[in-house]
Sequence to fold (343 residues):
Amino acid sequence: MKHAEIFQAWGRILTGRAPSMSIEITKECPLRCPGCYAYEDAHLGGGVTLRQLSDYKGDQLVKSVLDVVDHHKPLHVSLVGGDPLVRCRELEVLLPQLNERGIFVQVVTSAFRQIPAAWASLSRLNVVVSIDGLEAEHNERRKPATYERILKNIVGHRVVVHTTITGQTMRRDGYWEEFLQFWTPREEIKKVWISLFTPQRGAALAPEHLSIEERDRAIRDLYRLREKFPKLDMAKALIKEFARPPQSPDECVFAKTTLTLSADLRTKVEPCQLGGDPDCARCGCVASMGLAAVGNHALVPGLTAGMIFHASAKIGKMVAKLRTVGPAAAPSCAQEPDAPPVV
Ligand code: SF4
Ligand code: SF4
Fold:
């Protein structure tokens, strides 16, 4: 994170706004990945599921997303799903407009279809391709977005590969080294980010879950692999955070700085984009660890960036309240924080 970006984000926090948004722009996905959190019954809190929400298409989707973004004014937006590439035609209109607004955008996709050539020239766009381990396992879990298809669909682009270490993959020696040997030499790969699997609290034991020993070994492997593969874009300070994840959403800088909306563009996904009731103490989300590393950075002895963040967030909460109840606020503004998009 650059200093200028940190100051901009801090400004948003002080005014009670989230500097980041994550938007599930569609409820549709052609894949059926085992362990996908988006389609879990509890993802949206247990009342309604992602598949039951009404979502947007065509011009209405473009306009509604822009309305939401203009309302919340984030610095960074992640477009997720479902798979955002299901709405490829809409993204071709939306992404240049977000780029023009100076917003950094991340499209997280399985790359099941070709990434449009024009996206390569958008300066503030990151395409993140989710890959589920080595080819045999990945193809089994994520068909039709097989290795062969991904390799074809990312030609002409520089994408970020994101993958998740699961229990199964830690039961085979050298698994992640082989993964990085396959992906990092390719010119289409800009960098690689690796998360650890995050279970829901109270979930029945599944093969994806990492034991304490497997998690410790995965952390040690990441320290070693980052030296060997420079495209593994994970600082030592970030990896260190996997060993001491936030104990609750309240301690999680990522959850507190990111507003996540589901496919109707009004339902909030809480406490973070995983939804449901994630086990923070076993969190393996690379984004959360990255921000935790920023938060634990000591500015001067005894004062971390996180302490300033938490104090600023409290001030921001008060400022947001004043915005909604203050004398200048017209009655309709009282609903501002949850204002639905104009449809
Ligand atoms: S591609 Fe993503 S949204 Fe679709 S099923 Fe797989 S994990 Fe879920
Ligand atoms: S990102 Fe991780 S630590 Fe933060 S709220 Fe979600 S599960 Fe908890």
User: Anything to note?
Assistant: The radius of gyration is 20 Å. The pocket of iron/sulfur cluster (ligand 1) is lined by residues 29, 31-33, 36, 38, 81-83, 110 (CB under 6 Å).
